Amino acid sequence: MCIDSSYAKPAAGWLRRRAQQAMRAGLWSAYRRVQIDPVRYLLHLRRTHGLPIKSFRDMFVIPTPVIEYLAESAVAASMKMALVEGAGTGLGGVLTIVPDAGLLAAITVRMMQKLSLIHGFEYASEDEVADLWIATASAAGVDLGKDFLRKEVIERFVPRLIEQIAVRAGSDLVERALARLVPVLSSVVGGTLNYYFVREWGRRAHQHFQEKHLLLRGQRQRGRNDELTFDFRLL
Question: Which residue range forms the structural domain that includes residue 94?
Fold first, then answer.
């Protein structure tokens, strides 16, 4: 059965707006309520992986292959959660896009927080929170441009980013919403698309934090070398 093209475009536009609204609401909820406890996560890394760290600043002396393994594991775990979540909520078809987007936003934000901590970046100060959401926007594929700078207080800056992330991510979610027009297939398709959605975000976020980590690690190493050189000259 063919679908009249005169109805297809308005339907797609409605779905896109609906998806963007759902993702915006999910991101706002995640911003206000979803947060990995850095202290507990630090203890988790120490106990589970035997890391000799007292704070996340010590991640800059942990071998980079270990950090890579931890980051990839965090992304993989989030992908599995997204797969299960998509298969569960997908049974309701397109009507479940709102709760699905909320859960998907929570999963991705928690993944971003874990990746940030793994690479040695906490989010205690306003600047650190801003950096976390810049990384989230980068993971969503939002092009912030070289002129995009934080010039407002955090209460205005983050909403601007959330809006741009919601527009981009909401458009990506339209494909999943369209797949759910066939509820029999939607649980399988929704779970699979969630899986790859989080994988893509995870890949971009991992690259963002990795580059930032290696840059700061190099700066610290050069600083230590300069100190050693200065001390040697005093002998």
Answer: 7-221
